[in-house]
Amino acid sequence: MPKITFISHEGEKRQVEAENGISVMENAVKNNIPGIDADCGGACACATCHVYVDEAWREKVGKRAEMEEDMLDFAFDVRENSRLSCQIEVRDELDGLIVRTPEKQF
Amino acid sequence: MSEPPKNNSNGAGAADVIRTDAVIIGAGPVGLFAVFELGLLDVRAHLIDILDKPGGQCAELYPEKPIYDIPGIPVISGQALTDRLMKQIAPFGAEFHYGEIVTALENIRDGLWRVETSEGKIFEAPVVVIAAGGGSFQPKKPPIPRIEDYEGTSVFYAVRKMEAFRGRHVLVCGGGDSALDWTLSLAPVAASLSLMHRRDSFRAAPASVGKMRALVKAGAIKFYQGQPVALHGGGGLLESVEAKGSDGNFRVACDILLPFFGLTMKLGPVADWGINLRENLIPVDTEKFETDRAGLFAIGDINTYPGKLKLILSGFHEAALMAQRAFRYVHPDKKLVFQYTTSSSSLQKKLGVSLKGTRGEGI
User: Fold this and answer.
1) Mutation for testing the A interface, residue in B264, B311, B312 having most A CBs under 10 Å
2) Given the DSSP bridges, would you call strands B45-49 and B95-98 parallel, antiparallel or unpaired?
3) Structural domain for B251, as ranges
4) Judged by CB atoms within 8 Å, which residues 237-276 of B form the interface with A?
5) A9 vs A77, B58, B88, B119, B249, CA distance in Å?
6) The domain spanning residue A85 has which CATH number?
7) Measured at the alpha carbon of residue B35, what is the angle toward residues B30 and B39, in degrees to the nearest 5?
8) Cβ of residue A77 closer than 8 Å to a chain B Cβ
9) Measured distance CA(B352)–CA(B363) in Å, rounded
10) What is the CATH number of the domain that holds B222?
11) What is the interface pTM, i.e. ipTM, of the complex?
12) Does A39 touch chain B (CB under 8 A)?
């Protein structure tokens, strides 16, 4: 099972054994990762599962889809490496993925 | 249905009281279906919702997203479910009060509740049904430090009167329809108008975006690409907004900031009504979905009980059982006979269908 590391705004690291085929957000919620609210439950409708993808992983994780780009308008402090974690599907190639959670989901 | 206001001794200037059988707080799918279940039992209802349309989360959060767990409907969008519920409850003539938030809920005497809204409306009914889902949709407040110091003086999340911004230097933030619509409407009124958005493409209707770009080109308004990060000013009076752009931070001089970052669900005033809450949910029994106070019910996502599942279908079930009890408060002298819509001609009469002809059609 791929491992994913979540780093909080304060720098706290949490590594989880992630399940393939579901999203990074769902894996975070299953493992009670703080800093990911996921108000809408994964419908790409709320932008409260905003994460910053570690630079080394940006290419493998891939680019935002158009709807995700629209939803990111509702996030705070959007950066080049911002993604909605409900839109990143976990697969073997993402073993070792590092994402950071923002100061606030807004 | 409201009776004509009675000429009671409220005194001059007192608001007319709307008297009805049941007040439903929240016009999401569960609140809408409650109209149906209550209607079958001759309990008339008024609905109050903060949104300007029915459907709650289904309409606001995921109108186009598919729902797969409505019994008998393999797949339906949030908006389509809302539309069908509106059609289903149409025969009962419930009255809707949109864009209003319930500010006070009070048990004024045994068997009578009083509900007040932000628009100053007052309702009195023996039954109140809280179907408020996750609370109320409220504008998202950008987490900019000290923004609350400026709220109501320089920062506004909604425009009530355009005249309030005449001659002011206005900065609108956002890229959706609200941001673009207000940009276009306020441009001729404000002393100066700037629009700020994090990127150079917009979710708003293409026609509005086109008009906005034309105004920018003509020099009538300014567009800045960036995200607000800090407010500068003092004593609640804004002087400039600091923003993060691709080449670092910059400032836009303005004395009014209008952030339009969509809506978020907050428990909101439910917490102020003086009712029992458990972890921001309303405890109810599972026989009647009534709270610990007679005549006050809670159904759908807002309630809690052992085994509770936040599913639309659970809310529908709760509405049906709630209605049985509500009937007894509204019609204490009548006998409740359980009937099926498929076979009862009296229920079919209420629904406006008859055994002959229209049977099996529509609903």
Assistant:
1) B264
2) parallel
3) 147-261
4) 244, 261-262, 264-265
5) 12, 32, 48, 41, 21
6) 3.10.20.30
7) 145
8) yes
9) 11
10) 3.50.50.60
11) 0.87
12) yes
B chain contacts of residue A103, beta-carbon cutoff 8 Å: 143
Q: Is B226 exposed, middle or buried (0-12, 13-18, 19+ CB in 10 A)?
A: buried
A55 touches chain B (CB under 8 A): no
Q: Is residue A69 less than 8 Å (CB to CB) from chain B?
A: yes
Nearest to A106 among B142, B198, B229 (CB): B142
Flag whether B211 is in a domain.
yes
Query: Closest residue of A to B58, CA-based?
Result: A40
For residue A105, being part of any structural domain is answered with: no
Measure A44 CA to nearest chain B CA, in Å.
Answer: 9
* CA A67/CA B2 separation, integer angstroms: 44
Nearest to A45 among B65, B140, B174 (CB): B65
Q: Do A73 and B264 touch (CB under 8 A)?
A: no
Per-residue pLDDT of chain B (363 residues; tens, 9 = 90+): 444 444 444 444 456 899 999 999 999 999 999 999 999 999 999 999 999 999 998 988 778 888 999 999 999 999 999 999 999 999 999 999 999 999 999 999 999 999 999 999 999 999 999 999 988 888 888 889 999 999 999 999 988 889 999 999 999 999 999 999 999 999 999 999 999 999 999 999 999 999 999 999 999 999 999 999 999 999 999 999 999 999 999 999 999 999 999 888 888 889 889 899 998 899 999 999 999 999 999 999 999 999 999 999 999 999 999 999 999 999 999 999 999 999 999 999 999 997 654 444 444
Adjacent-strand bridge partners of B98 = B49
* Count, residues in chain A: 106
Closest CA relative to residue B319, chosen from B57, B13, B34: B34
In this complex, do B62 and A104 lie within 8 Å of one another by their Cβ atoms? Answer: no
- Inter-chain contact B62–A70, Cβ cutoff 8 Å? no
Nearest chain B residue to A71 by CA: give it.
B203
